[in-house]
């Protein structure tokens, strides 16, 4: 390259660089001009609502956020608390916005209208080109609104009624399901929010059907699968050798049905079922012997109760399994510990205790100790059962006459005179029982008459007792069982007490009796005593007497055998009482 060429190019390069600087300066100038204008535009509109903007019909355009929010609040003052009228068919309810949890969020409404501060070009463009017609931002308290919608549904609609199956007085009672009417919660919420702030705050709603959880198909299924089969026949729970039969009229009250998962399922009252079973078994776990009740003069067997220990849940599960089974398959063994009664129902019925074969009544004058002691002895003796061959012992049955056993002090005969001791008067029980056994034809094993005669007792046919010393015993020497019944009507100051002892069995004998004249009289002595427990007495003679008992078969005049009872009564001495210590 030549020197001239280099020199020629240098001025051109300088010209190019100078031209570039001019262009750059021009561009910078233009940028400054535009930037200044943009900044000026921001300063004029950057924190204001676009011009021409309305919210809920209120013009807030061209205002700052705070001013726009205030203008909106003032403009909506007449609407924010205006009530909403809700109409369903011909029923109307007025709703207060506050009760519905409805209010206006003014700042959020302004922000949604474009009233936030921003450098974005679009934001500035919107400001200068004009705003929109917008709805206010409504704040909703969901808890309040949901509560209101639920209340409106209840006030303006009707609840659905679930079908039900129940058991009352041994019968099945059906409650038919009923379709309800209610408001659609979502549509109602939407309608209330939409009506808020509107010029005509009226809401027209339509009720829709509400299906019950338990409909007629569920009810019919419950009847077919459980209720009708349950009451079709008895259920038998077998504890060891003892069946417990429960009749529908008895167990219906323990049955029920409850709604669960949209269907009816069986429900049992476990406590009632356990009580129902316990009525037929020993409730304490101990067995109870069969016994007898006398109804209208006829003995009836009261069934025995086995002693049973079991888990209530086992009985419940077994019962529920059986109660829907067909007839013939409603019996099942129950897992339990069983102790059978000594006298079972079957054995009691086999004893042949069918009728009253004898009865004897004695009377006694008023004394409260007699009411207590004779009444207590009668209470204990009543219901005693003797199997064939067994012997009755009054001392064994009644037990020792103590206060703990329910007895009190009364007069007894000791060493030929009256004294006080516990159990005084029980000899009335001995005499009455002896005569009932006498006329039933039962075997006399042991009896002892009083030492001197007491005129309210049949002469030669009476007995006394003293615990541990003197007893009344007779044997059931028949082929049938014997039931002893004892009843007492207490004495009063104006009336005698009445004691009756009856024997129930199968009649074996017709008994008649004869009594001799009294003979071999003995005159009473006179005693003068100064003991603290002296009781005066006017004496009378002793004597001897004989009594015969004749045995004939029922309906026959032929004498089978006879027995003779000889009694030797001592004299009842006259007793004169002196002050204690007055006799040397």
UniProtKB/TrEMBL annotation:
- Tell me which species this is from: Nocardioides psychrotolerans
The reply on keyword Transmembrane is: yes
Q: Membrane-crossing residues?
A: 21-45
- Pfam families to which the protein is assigned, alphabetical: VanW
Q: What is this protein called?
A: Vancomycin resistance protein YoaR, contains peptidoglycan-binding and VanW domains
Identify the keywords attached in UniProt to this record, alphabetized.
Membrane, Transmembrane, Transmembrane helix
Q: Which residues form a coiled coil?
A: none
**Upper classification of the organism:** Bacteria, Bacillati, Actinomycetota, Actinomycetes, Propionibacteriales
